[in-house]
Amino acid sequence: MSPLHLSFYSAFTLSSLGLAFHRTHLISALLCLESMMLSMYIALTMWPIQTQTSSTTLVPILMLSFSACEAGTGLALLVASTRTHGSDHLHNFNLLKC
User: Fold this and answer.
1) Residues 38, 45: contact at Cβ < 8 Å?
2) Is 23 a member of any domain?
3) Where would one find coiled-coil regions in this protein (predicted)?
4) Helix, strand or coil for residue 58?
5) How far is CA 33 from CA 3, 8, 56, 72, 77, in A?
6) Is the dihedral angle over the CA atoms 64, 66, 72, 78 positive or is it negative?
7) CA dist., res. 49 & res. 84, Å (int)
8) 69: CATH
9) What's the confidence (pLDDT) of residue 24?
């Protein structure tokens, strides 16, 4: 395994572990999701270079646009929940009360 692959796998693994274990604030969960998407985007853009193909793919651009939509939606939910609940702690949210 090359050091490049190891760095992508470790970045994705660390961000998914951060999402699983540090769920106190909504902003930290959003940051972990963004780091997962960033590591996947960099891995997908480096994949044609590693396989030495000359064709460009549309998948990294589509994933980057979905990541931007996910970030915008997450920040909108963060602002809305902070206005209604007063903080971004995840233990304050109860989906059954909606």
Assistant:
1) no
2) yes
3) none
4) coil
5) 23, 15, 26, 12, 14
6) negative
7) 47
8) 1.10.287.3510
9) 84
pLDDT at 95: 61
Domain tally for the chain?
1
Which tokens go with 98?
Answer: 């909606």
How far is Cα 6 from Cα 31, in angstroms, rounded to an integer?
Answer: 21
- Picking from 30, 19, 26, the residue whose alpha carbon sits closest to that of residue 82 is 26
How many C-beta neighbours within 10 Å does residue 93 have? Answer: 14
The residue range of the domain holding 58 is 3-33+42-92
Handedness of CA 79, 23, 20, 39 (dihedral sign): positive
Tell me if 98 is assigned to some domain: no
